[in-house]
Amino acid sequence: xxxxxxxxxxxxxxxxxxxxxxxxxxxxxxxxxxxxxxxxxxxxxxxxxxxxxxxxxxxxxxxxxxxxxxxxxxxxxxxxxxxxxxxxxxxxxxxxxxxxxxxxxxxxxxxxxxxxxxxxxxxxxxxxxxxxxxxxxxxxxxxxxxxxxxxxxxxxxxxxxxxxxxxxxxxxxxxxxxxxxxxxxxxxxxxxx
Length: 193
Ligand code: SF4
Description:
The chain is an alpha+beta fold. The protein folds into two domains: about 1-30 and about 125-193, no CATH class; about 35-125, no CATH class. It has helices at about 10-15, 20-25, 45-55, 60-70, 105-110, 120-125, 145-155, 160-165, 165-170, 175-190, and strands spanning about 1-5, 5-10, 40, 75, 80, 95, 100-105, 125-130, 135-140. It has a four-stranded mixed beta sheet, with helices on one face. It has a three-stranded antiparallel beta sheet with strand order 3-5-4. Strand 8 (about 125-130) and strand 9 form a beta hairpin. It is globular. The termini are close together. Iron/sulfur cluster binds near residues 22, 27, 28 and 145.
């Protein structure tokens, strides 16, 4: 583990490779699982504010879930989460394009209709964020459905922290990300933690 500022960084973030290959996994992370994606408290306002814009990309089933629940998020297990379709692991914001599961919120972002891409927990996947005392901890989450991303990442030699440069900068800033790169380089060259 490395410590960069107030952040604990698991070795797996620089020792493992990762690069999503949607042609292989078909975006399965959006339709599998037994809980919605974590939503940070300050993201609930954005999910609500931009719902009238991104709702046009959602399926009828997803719209019914949000509109019956009254909000585009739920509060479960002590945190806000994205809502799931009834009896399924699929996120209520999922729609399909050429057989690939995609995010309605991100679609509106990519079309420059809203300034919010999606919850940071989705953008950062497979990094999971937790709190350890005064530190924020970043760990790699193993999920067999992402095996193709591990193989693709190995083929391209892209470490997890490089693949997730954009969301890491969004969460911690450019300066922190540069410090992360320098710390990893120093460790890999000289073994200094
Ligand atoms: S996180 Fe995993 S399931 Fe989701 S797009 Fe990437 S490889 Fe596919």
